[in-house]
Amino acid sequence: MVNVVGCFALGYVLYAVRLGTVSEKTRVFTATGFVSSFTTYSTFAVDVFVSRPGVAVVYIAASYVSGFAAVAVGSGIAIYRTEGTA
């Protein structure tokens, strides 16, 4: 779940920078600093390693699908907020 929240935050920040509503310095701090320390790929890898094979496959698929969905939602909100203020 933490990785999904991190994906959402990353999607939002990257699109907000692209749209000019967030500065490049904020992107570096948020994406490289906060989000990268907030999410941990190593925990994901250990969870997969200690799971039964069937559970691991479902966990991997669910993690990637929900992560990509969270990026899409975060970027969509950034776009919506920018268009709403224009």
UniProtKB/TrEMBL annotation:
Keywords: Cell membrane, Membrane, Transmembrane, Transmembrane helix. GO terms for cellular component: plasma membrane. Its main location: membrane. It catalyses: fluoride(in) = fluoride(out). Pfam families: CRCB (PF02537). InterPro entries: FluC. The chain crosses the membrane at residues 28-50, 57-80. It is found in: Cell membrane. It is a multi-pass membrane protein. Important for reducing fluoride concentration in the cell, thus reducing its toxicity. Belongs to the fluoride channel Fluc/FEX (TC 1.A.43) family. This is Fluoride-specific ion channel. It comes from Halorutilus salinus.
